[in-house]
Amino acid sequence: MQPIRVYPNAKINLGLSITRKRADGFHDLETTFFPVRGLHDTLEISGVTQAGSFLLEIAGNQELASETNNILERAYELLSPFSPPKLRVHLTKRIPIGGGLGGGSADAAFFLHAVAPLCKETITPEQLKTIALELGSDCPFFLLNTPAVGRGRGELLTPIALQLQGYILVVVVPAIQISTKEAFAAIKPQSARFIPEVVLRTPVELWAQTLTNDFQAYVTAQYPAICNLLISLKESGAVYTSLSGSGSAVFGLYRHLVALPALPNCLVHIEQL
Q: How many CB atoms neighbour CB 24 within 10 A?
């Protein structure tokens, strides 16, 4: 097989409401996923002839490299009924872990999308989406990878047109990892206080009045440094700021970016939309 190289990108959440805890232990939510294409990992896939059907190598994150049962290994196992080829996979990690940017889900979804056509048995788009959801609630979004409102666990996706051309997106990720389990345990589900399709049609400058992330109050109270990052983005001219997902990453949307404050010990990604 010809080697394949893909670039799984990050995402941010424009608003996030946790609406219900389900009987299966997961949560229903409402959010808008927005791809951050310039912040990405690199996934290189090639065939192997030696013993073993799946060889995974990881660079860029020692913690992830030492992990057993990586999400890419699980993705390969879920493809096994469809007879995938033997593969060597090299992942170069750039998206921070625990930031709420969906890096692991992106890796898995891009892997599924790349490998599905190589399987001996045909995989339908609906089957691929079902496999993706087994790996993570964000995974189905990355199969689509275009702005979309997510409901259910995040798999019920409705593409949405956003008028953000000309804005500058700044994503800041401090050296803090937040436990998704602990974050969800701190949230009391309630009915969504806004309808994404309605709010996102209003000017960005008005979003802060209604477009909120249910995790933000908990995260900023537990981690004052994250609260300070949001304040810094606002003071530097961001017209909308928010936490992304349930992680530590924050972001700001700017009409014009003059200068950012010093943000030590943080990954800073700037992207023209």
A: 7
Q: How far apart are CA 33 and CA 146, in angstroms?
A: 8
- State pLDDT tens for residues 5-53: 999 999 999 999 999 999 888 899 999 999 999 999 999 999 986 767 8
Catalytic residue among 11, 41, 107, 214: 11
- Tell me the C-alpha distance between 38 and 234, whole Å: 22
Other Cβ atoms less than 10 A from the Cβ of 138: the count is 27
Kindly report the number of other CB atoms within 10 A of residue 262's CB atom: 6
- 125-135 and 71-79 helices cross at what angle (nearest 10)? 140
pTM of the model: 0.94
Active-site hit among 41, 93, 107, 138: 138
Q: Does the annotation mark 138 as catalytic?
A: yes
Q: Quick one: CA torsion of 236, 39, 146, 199, rounded to 10 degrees?
A: -20
Report, in angstroms and rounded to the nearest whole number, the Rg of the chain calculated over CA atoms: 19
What separation in angstroms does the CA of 239 have from each of 107, 206, 214, 232?
Answer: 31, 9, 20, 12
User: Quick one: tokens of 51?
Assistant: 């013993």
User: Does 41 participate in catalysis according to the annotation?
Assistant: no
